[in-house]
Design goal:
Elements: H1 2-45, H2 51-56
Length: 57
């Protein structure tokens, strides 16, 4: 009984971890592309604005 419990449990955790890692990297990728587009648009439009003022908004 112990061996079956320990044999089935890591497989479920591994699948859940793979799904969670996959979703995390997809969200991270989309967020980083979106943020870089926003930053590029902002700094191309306002190249001389200091970063401190942008962060303070």
């Amino acid at each position: 009984m112990k061996t079956s419990k320990f044999a089935s449990r890591p497989r479920q955790l591994t699948v859940l971890e793979l799904v969670a890692i996959g979703l995390f990297f997809i969200v991270l990728r989309v967020a980083s592309v979106h943020a870089s587009d926003l930053l590029l648009d902002h700094f191309v439009a306002n190249p001389v604005e200091p970063v401190a003022q942008h962060v303070a908004r």
